[in-house]
Amino acid sequence: MKFGPVPIDQAEGAVLAHATTAGERRFRKAHRLSAEDVSALKAAGIAEIVAAVLAADDLSEDAAAERIAASMAHRNIEAKPAATGRVNLHAKAAGVFTVDATMIDAINAVDPTITIATLAQHAPVEKGQMVATVKIIPFAVASALVDAVVKICAGGEIFAVNAYQPVRIGVIQTVLPGIKASVLDKTLRVTEARLARSGARLTTERRTPHEVVPVAEAAAALARDNDMVVIFGASAMSDFSDVVPAAIEKAGGTVIRAGMPVDPGNLLVLGTLDGKRVIGAPGCARSPKENGFDWVLDRLIAGLDVTAKDIAGMGVGGLLMEIPTRPQPREPLPTRAGLKVEIVLLAAGRSSRMGGSNKLLALFDGKPLVRRTAERALGSKASSTVVVTGHQRERVRQALAGLGVIFADNPDFADGLSSSLKVGIARVGADAAGAMIVLGDMPGISSADLDRLIEAFRRDGGHSVVRAAHDGRRGNPVLLSRALFPAIAHLEGDTGARHLVEAEGLDVIDVEIGDGASIDVDTREALEDAGGVLQD
């Protein structure tokens, strides 16, 4: 193939490099010119075009991509029609993706003009999801290069979607004194939701003492009637002879591997009993967040074997996002008494329901509401207060003149609450264990109320979300653990801390502080009822 300027008299059969207009006709990029097209271009006064001229042994980009895709051996995958030199391949079923990396590397080494990209090895996929794409870079490639790729593809299955099977799973939860039934119930709900994506079914749950013999008896019974058994220990495995691995062996099974190089997920146990797989779930599996348990569970449900060697090879890429509710975070927080909490006071809103007035500047007992709220934040046990400004930023800053707050401006305040939350969290100190999100329009919140939330957060060791409540109903402020900060970066639109807490499925401690938790002043009537006076 030759690429470059082509005299119009020699352009028949050439492929346009750029969109070109001839009178009222417009030829798209990659259009192959016919004799009629050439005549139209001449009539428009075009003497030369930039194009690709194919040699006799060249294949067009679409023909090359289609031939390569047609030569591939795969399962549960379909190829879409070629377009612009690309063939996309999609999953025909939900399952786990597997790929022969050696074959993919060999294809991509043939020539830079031919490329193939795929999902990662063992990636979970949904039906209809794209799993691979073949892309020809130029407008045409030599047929000999395509022949070389086709020869590589003849070497066997290049990739597959291993479809999930209708697996029946029995669950055992062990119990120690003090463990709450609500924790066990939540674990069951999280597990059922985790299985729903694969179509597997939780058939039976048994709760036993955290002892070898009762766990072994329950495992043996569930293995007879199910395809898999999952054991949630009330206490994490601390030794390879601990309750869960010992119970598997006591029941007549074999422990394949105890411990895995995936975090969260280190304390997983994998065994076999009567030909069925048994998983001792790590504590992080009680959370819906991705962890090493998912990696093993999904593969087994998809009919893939998981060996000790497989688990040993999961370390690269095995450092996953921290789970806030883990009993033992990988980086311990400061001692409880010294847990540092900062306040993020949101004061960027437009007060859109106030008819043009800024509710944060409304006077309460002669003082602007935003200043009143900031003074109460500064009077609490929080180490510092970050004020996020946006709408009428200069007026808000003037109202706070002389106070020892940290200002963070949000130029994107019109995009919604999440934008202010991101800006505020970004200014929280690196040594803070948590951030309390305080709304600027809550006149009933006192310094003592804020301190009660901080004290509850410290008593819990900084592991949970602490939320103000009134008569059992959720309210504001909300105190977020630092482990949640990375998730805040993914919020969009008018969503805030409440949305984040619900989406992450975290443990929440509600602290009753009275009606201050539920009184905000979103409307003129509400503001006046609360004792405020709007200013122009």
From TrEMBL:
InterPro entries cross-referenced by the UniProt entry: Bifunc_Mopterin-bd (IPR012184), MoaB/Mog-like_dom_sf (IPR036425), MobA-like_NTP_Trfase (IPR025877), Nucleotide-diphossugar_trans (IPR029044)
Residue intervals of the MobA-like NTP transferase domain: 344-503
CDD domains: GT_2_like_f, MoeA_like
SUPFAM superfamilies in the cross-refs: Molybdenum cofactor biosynthesis proteins (SSF53218), Nucleotide-diphospho-sugar transferases (SSF53448)
Alphabetically ordered keywords of this record: Magnesium
UniProt-recorded name of the protein: Molybdopterin-binding/glycosyltransferase family 2 protein
